[in-house]
Design goal:
Elements lengths: L5 E2 L1 E3 L2 E3 L6 E5 L6 E6 L3 H20 L2 H17 L1 H12 L6 H20 L6 E4 L2 E9 L2 E5 L5 H14 L3 E5 L6 H12 L7 E3 L4 H8 L6 E5 L2 H12 L4 E5 L5 E4 L5 H13 L11 E5 L3 H13 L19 H16 L3 E4 L3 E4 L2 E7 L2 E4 L16 E7 L2 H8 L7 E5 L3 H10 L4 E4 L18 E2 L6 H4 L2 E9 L8
Parallel strand pairs: 1-5, 8-9, 8-11, 9-10, 11-12, 13-14, 13-20, 14-19, 18-19, 20-21
Antiparallel strand pairs: 2-3, 4-5, 6-7, 7-23, 12-22, 15-18, 16-17
The structure holds NADPH dihydro-nicotinamide-adenine-dinucleotide phosphate (NDP).
NADPH dihydro-nicotinamide-adenine-dinucleotide phosphate binds next to helix 7, strand 11 and helix 8.
Organism: Spiribacter aquaticus
Family: Belongs to the aldehyde dehydrogenase family.
EC number: 1.2.1.8
Length: 487
């Protein structure tokens, strides 16, 4: 068997080997086949990336915003031009269906670059007359931002972090998840081809240790992490020593509430999208589906019928709905939750089994599972599983379901299906979560702020608000009178 290709670190717009020469292998989770031998960055490599970023950042920040925007717009076009290639890479490295990746991953990254290309030229401060003069404010870049990504949306995460950072005049050192390093590297090359100067987007691959080298580096001013809650806490602790700003996009166990007046077909579509898209490996998923007792039987019938129709298969096949989980270890983790759910008395209505897919012998496939759960304390209704496991829970009235929906340490997202608009807005206001969908689920237009409340996160990505998290405000007071000193 021929050796898989090598992927080095991307520093200063060039391929650089890791100083220690260390490598790890990234594999296709659908087949277990190695895709590439990847250089693993240690603290000295991270330091080289930070120095390259520091050398480039001041000049980048001094350029007019429209000029930065022009380069980001060229990058958006370049990402679109490489749509098929990037979609395939995301499918191979992440096990995600090729039916999803062109739109959900590549277009999402391009939209983000395009959006922040426009925003780069409109960063504005404020002005106000005050006693003795006036002041104005300057939104200034933070400097060097460290980005640390999860494995479920590797390209999208790289774009969601780097585009606003770059638009605001920062440089970024990015560490993709160890399980999915390939698309961030290709993204970096494409940014360079589009004209992004050297040093502004460096990629250092590796595992948690490499991430720690970023969070502990005194030359990095901010960390933006997408990952689990426990990782968020560890990163915040490490970042505290150098008092770095942090954005935290963390996990969730979000409620999706279906009232008895809802369009059931829409609600079922929302629940399927919000549980089984990307094999359920989505942070915002509405994995606690609360359904009014008057419609729960009909709802379950329709969910089961449509779940039976899903095709589990080779992610590279355009007809596949459910691809491979990210790794055999993650598959076992998901199956263990399914076992615990049954042991606790939850009723498994369909799925939840390891599946062998023809042509994908080493693949980590699990059939989408639906449970009926009577007890909110059941572990599968409380903990994030990050796999295709939907729990359906009955409820009787609005106040009760709001109380139960909010009874979680998480607060990432939530959904409400109802034809009663007043109730939709009332429930949206009452849910303690950062993103709420009324009569839909999991749409994340780039114009809309995205992020969690409570233990699901700090800060916001996307929209103009993201720029607040990649800038710091300087206030400048200008005197209009002489200085009247009392001594
Ligand atoms: P992890 O928390 O395991 O890892 C996230 C990233 O942090 C990886 O790059 C990881 O490295 C790195 N890392 C791990 N430990 C440390 C550390 N101590 N210091 C610095 N970096 C560290 O998350 P997963 O990759 O498993 O992703 C799944 C999680 O991400 C889920 O909880 C999901 O909800 C959440 N998520 C949240 C989103 C949001 O926007 N709110 C979106 C997508 C996912 P490596 O993996 O290479 O070892």
């Amino acid at each position: 068997m021929s050796r898989p290709p090598e992927r080095l670190l991307w520093i200063d717009n060039t391929w650089v080997d890791a100083r220690q020469g260390r490598r790890f292998t990234t594999t296709n989770p659908a087949t277990g086949e190695p895709l590439a031998e990847v250089a693993e960055a240690d603290a000295s490599d991270v330091d080289a990336a930070v120095r390259s970023a520091r050398a480039a950042q001041a000049d980048w920040a001094a350029r007019p915003g429209v000029e930065r925007g022009r380069i980001l717009a060229a990058a958006a076009a370049a990402v679109r031009a490489h749509r098929d290639e990037l979609a395939r890479l995301e499918c191979l490295d992440g096990g995600k269906p090729i039916a999803e990746t062109p739109e959900a991953d590549v277009d999402s990254a391009a939209d983000c670059l395009e959006y922040f290309a426009g925003q780069a030229g409109s960063l504005q401060g404020e002005y106000q007359d005050v006693a003795g003069g006036f002041f104005y404010t300057r939104p200034e870049p933070l400097g060097i931002c460290g980005g640390i990504g999860a494995w479920n949306y590797p390209l999208q995460i790289a774009a969601w972090k780097s585009a606003p950072a770059l638009a605001a005049g920062n440089a970024m050192v990015f560490k993709p998840a160890e399980l999915t390093p390939l698309s961030a590297l290709r993204f970096a090359e494409i940014l360079a081809e589009a004209g992004l100067p050297a040093g502004l987007f460096n990629v250092v691959q590796g595992a948690a240790e490499t991430g720690q080298a970023l969070t502990r580096h005194p030359g990095i001013d901010k960390i933006s992490l997408t990952g689990e809650v426990a990782t968020g806490k560890a990163v915040m602790r490490d970042a505290a020593d150098t008092l770095k700003a942090v954005t935290m996009e963390l996990g969730g166990k979000s409620p999706l509430i279906v009232f008895d007046d809802a369009s059931l077909d829409d609600a079922v579509s929302g629940a399927l999208l919000g549980n089984f898209y990307t094999q359920g490996e989505i942070c915002t998923n509405g994995t606690r589906v609360y359904v009014h007792e008057a419609v729960i039987e009909a709802f379950i019938d329709r969910v089961l019928t449509r779940t039976r129709g899903l095709t589990i298969g080779d992610p590279a096949d355009p007809d596949t709905d459910i691809g491979a989980l990210i790794s055999p270890a993650h598959r076992d983790h998901v199956l263990e939750y399914i076992r615990r759910g049954e042991a606790e008395g939850a009723q498994r209505l369909i799925g939840g089994e390891a599946v062998t897919v023809a042509g994908c012998p080493g693949g980590a496939f699990v059939s989408p599972a639906v449970f009926r759960v009577e007890n909110d304390d059941c572990v599968i209704a409380r903990e994030e599983i990050f796999g295709p496991v939907m729990t359906i829970l009955p409820f009787r009235d609005e106040a009760e379901v709001i109380r139960r929906a909010n009874d979680t340490p998480y607060g990432l997202a939530g959904g409400v299906f109802t034809r009663d608009l007043s109730r939709g807005h009332r429930v949206a206001a009452a849910l303690q979560a950062g993103v709420i969908w009324i009569n839909h689920y999991n749409l994340t237009p780039i114009e809309m702020p995205f992020g969690g409340m409570r233990q699901s996160g700090i800060g916001r990505e996307n929209s103009r608000r993201a720029l607040d998290h990649y800038t710091q405000l300087k206030s400048v007071f200008v005197a209009s009178t002489g200085v009247d000193a009392p001594y």
